[in-house]
Design a protein that fits this description.
There is one protein chain. By secondary structure, the chain is of the alpha/beta class. Helix content is about 45%, strand content about 15%. The chain folds into 2 domains: about 230 residues, 3-Layer(aba) Sandwich (Aldehyde Dehydrogenase, Chain A, domain 1), CATH 3.40.605; about 190 residues, Aldehyde Dehydrogenase, Chain A, domain 2 (3-Layer(aba) Sandwich). Helix 4 packs across helix 16. The longest helix has 27 residues.
Amino acid sequence: MDITADTPLDELATTHAELRRAWQARKPDHAQRRADLLRLREAFRARVDSMDAAIRADFGHRSQHENLLSEAMIVLAELDHALKHLRRWMRPRRAAVGWRFWPASARIVPEPVGVVGILSPWNYPVNLALVPLMSAIAAGNHVYLKPSEHTPRTSRWLRDLLSEVFPADRVAVALGGPEIGAAFASLPFDHLLFTGSTAVGRKVMAAAAPNLTPVTLELGGKAPAVVCPDYPLDRAAARIATGKWFNAGQTCIGVDYVLVDEARRDAFVEAMQRELRARYGDLEGSRDYTRIINDGQYARLRGYVDDARAHGARVIEPVTPQSDDATRARLASERLFPPTLVLEPPADSEVMRNEIFGPILPVLSYRTLDDAVARIRSLDRPLALYPFSDDERSVEKIVSATLAGGVTVNDTLLHFGAHDLPFGGIGPSGIGAIHGRTGFDTFSKLLPVFRQRRLAGSDLLKPPYRGFVDRMVRLLAR
């Protein structure tokens, strides 16, 4: 199987035009949307094993259970949610017009926008492709998907899956590298969604601007966890470990650094080391620890650790295999990057200036909760925020004094899977939101329709503004 073949550049515009032509000829109704989603669900379920194999091959190794949780479970749950609520989402929504416009009425009608472009990433290559795709299909659009070149086997798997489920003029898939991605983002879509880094998100937004294409950007940032003095350290360490080392930290809403009250910082570090040893043993034999996606990302992360040491930070690798140089070199060639704790890195170190997107966790201490909040506010608004406290006042103080894309209290990651919670960032961590009804609305034009009655007071609002008309205007303006 040739996993490297790119879509020819000159095919992109042709395919986009065919998707638009077919959509204009027959906009999908409820029956078609539901049938499409049902076929997608059936085909996806039948291919979970081959999906798992493709992802693990692209990563070199990724935990099968993490694939089932983050890819299969999320996709199937989102499909079920859309199928259950699709008819209700499609219904016109009543809207009040106020007494000044009586006896008129109004409603909001969700209408499909046309052809939706989706640029999906490598870290969760199926979930982050299919979840927005199904939202766009539910909203009645046609879709052009460009998955990541860094997971070529999975991208080919997506293309094969979708080509079986959908006609080529309803859903198409483009394969290729940055050149294809840049040309894809420049197509005149009716909506464009990109998931990835903030740096690339800026380029996507610039490429979409000449066409005035509406964009949804799902980006990232430095998601903090704040452990308050009242919260049990063992429980905090366990839940933060899940949010940090799931997929070896290659998660946009993964914990990027943790703030712990000064008196308990060392105890937290000990608790975290115990947690990591219990999960991964000596690491080398663990089937549950995912590899870094490619050599470039591995080198970037290694550079972050070297830079932290150069800045005087203490670096701890609790589960690094105790083996000879040859074994360590082999593990590096497999891109096995051990869970790494970095204690008190300075603000100008690489791990604090950049989103880490890997298995390195800075641990920072704070004297007061105000100090912790100030530290969070000194950085860009993150995609996620994780306060840990059983004191509602402390949680409210953290949440109200900061602003993030989403919040999970006393746990990590889980708000992503709640269908009725919109998922999206703010500013450098993203623009717009998806999931559930929010995703349906994102890929719809919520069309306002104002309906006037046969007899209406507005018939009187015309010059000359004298007598009764004058009094009526003055009443309306009160």
